[in-house]
Design a protein that fits this description.
Layout: H1 10-13, H2 16-30, E1 33-38, E2 43-47, H3 51-59, H4 61-81, E3 85-88, E4 94-102, E5 105-115, H5 122-130, H6 140-144, H7 151-172, H8 178-190, H9 198-213, E6 217-224, E7 227-235, H10 243-246, H11 249-266, E8 269-272, H12 282-290, E9 295-301, E10 307-314, H13 323-362, E11 367-370, E12 376-379, H14 381-386, H15 399-402, H16 406-422, E13 426-434, E14 437-450, E15 453-468
Antiparallel strand pairs: 1-2, 1-5, 3-4, 4-5, 6-7, 6-10, 8-9, 9-10, 11-12, 11-15, 13-14, 14-15
Helix pairs in contact: 2-8, 3-4, 7-13, 8-9, 8-13, 9-13
Length: 469
């Protein structure tokens, strides 16, 4: 796009509206605040900032100054390393910065975050706010609404946004089809919204890819127990035939087994400009020629449960695949993987949630589930009765909003923090007094993991195993 980047600025290579759409889409889907910083340390496109962050900075110019310094410092560090930089701002919130580099020139950075990686520690934030002349009690409500995610999840998001920034930078240098590429990537990012049909999203992506790359076919093939299945097959030319109709069952399997082998050997992506360049035996070459294939490129998708690959194919003539096309396919494949994983995860979560609700209601003990922000998302009648909760519900409320006893609030928060810290079940014992009567509780708490993964906690499950006088 440009031969000399010296006098070129971020807005010259990536449209400001596109940046705004990108950050807005990301903030909505991931639930993180985001802001763009150009190479001259000007900040634009502030999106999704938390009430806690805004209120603290509004009332403490010194905290605002220190937060700005931490953003700039992390941006410089990410440019030096070329990798995401995770940092904690003066407000005590976790953030990360990723650089925007084009041909090794720094054009700016994306800063995301304003989250916590554990339940807010009252003592820590009391001291932190006191240092800026602020009272914790004036900010407790806003702090309780800050999103809590695991450190592993924060790093995972940072790595993904780094991949996005890297690819968008590459896309921005390509004049041809730039708007279509950007539009497709935004569509895929928006696929993380609540209401979308994964089949529609994949079909749109494959159709757009054939138009952007000027090819005749884009498909996704999955492997279950090593048996290949074409899940999606978009063809924009009448002469491109159904592979199953052209091949025997044995030939069909061999065609896609070779692709899988190529991708494993290459580390995840492979392409050839001419069918005769493939390093396979003549019989296999003839098999590919039988399908009419001239050139192709493929990428290994990172979906859970099934191995999937995306294949782009050229039939009318040979095609010279460029580095930019390879990078673009990589990001599209990554985001398609995210969309497919989220769709499948949502279905599993629905089934798990229905099972959890049924389980909690059927337990012969008082039981509940809280989210990572300490809000109750389910509780059975035995728990409500035991705690004499008159409004008959705790759903959506935190311990601070339910209990009048500071000691009870403190203990429950400490228990939750312990479970999130060690990521293991715990048994705790608690003594307390109600109307002059001393009681003894034995409580079991356990983390609820995402799809049995011990690196991502979805909620905390609790049971009062025993209460006695």
């Amino acid at each position: 796009m440009y031969n000399d980047y010296e006098n070129i600025k971020l807005g010259d290579v990536i449209n400001r509206k596109f940046i705004n759409d990108l950050l807005g889409t990301f903030s909505k889907s991931a639930g993180l605040a985001s802001v763009c910083m150009d190479s001259e340390k000007n900040f634009t496109n502030e999106i999704g900032f938390t009430d806690f962050y805004n209120k603290v900075l509004r009332n403490s110019p010194e905290c605002a100054r220190q937060c700005l310094e931490s953003r700039i410092k992390s941006g410089e560090e990410s440019v030096e390393t070329g990798e995401p930089c995770i940092f904690e701002c003066a407000c005590g919130l976790k953030n990360f910065t990723v650089p925007i580099l084009i041909d090794n020139k720094h054009f700016g950075s994306i800063v995301c975050g304003q989250v916590l990686t554990e339940a807010p520690d009252k003592e820590k934030f009391t001291n932190l706010l006191n240092n800026f002349g602020l009272d914790y009690n004036d900010y407790e409500e806003e702090l309780s609404k800050v999103k809590v995610i695991t450190e592993e999840r924060l790093q995972e998001i940072a790595n993904y946004i780094h991949e996005v920034a890297t690819t968008f930078s590459s896309v921005s240098t390509i004049n041809s089809q730039k708007e279509k590429q950007q539009k497709l990537l935004l569509t895929l990012l928006r696929a993380t919204d609540i209401n979308y049909n994964i089949d529609d999203i994949v079909k749109i992506a494959l159709k757009d890819i054939t138009e952007i790359f000027k090819i005749e076919r884009a498909m996704i093939v999955s492997y279950q127990d090593d048996v290949p299945t074409i899940e999606y097959d978009y063809r924009n030319a009448d002469e491109v035939e159904d592979i199953k109709a052209l091949c025997t069952q044995e030939e069909y399997r061999k065609v896609f087994d070779i692709w899988k082998l190529f991708l494993y050997q290459s580390g995840g992506d492979v392409h050839f400009n001419d069918i005769d360049d493939i390093n396979v035996d003549n019989a296999t070459k003839e098999l590919y020629k039988k399908t009419g294939l001239k050139s192709a490129m493929a990428y290994l998708m990172r979906t859970e449960g099934k191995l999937r690959i995306v294949i782009l194919a050229k039939y009318k003539e040979k095609h010279v695949w460029t580095k930019q096309q390879n990078i673009f396919l990589k990001l599209v494949s990554e985001q398609l993987s995210v969309a497919i994983n989220q769709a499948e995860l949502k279905n599993r979560i629905k089934r798990v949630k229905a099972l959890q609700v049924s389980l909690i209601k059927s337990l012969p003990f008082p039981a509940w589930i809280k989210d990572l922000n300490g809000r109750y998302i389910e509780a059975n009648k035995l728990f409500l009765k035991l705690e004499n909760i008159k409004n008959n519900s705790v759903i959506g409320f935190t311990d601070d909003e339910i209990w009048n006893d500071e000691d009870t609030i403190k203990h429950y928060k400490e228990y939750d923090k312990q479970v999130l810290g060690i990521k293991e079940p715990i048994n705790v014992e608690r003594q307390f007094i109600i109307n002059g009567q001393k009681y003894f509780d034995r409580i079991y708490l356990a983390p609820v993991f995402a799809d049995n993964k011990k690196d991502e906690i979805l909620a905390i499950f609790g049971v009062v195993v025993e209460r006695k006088i």
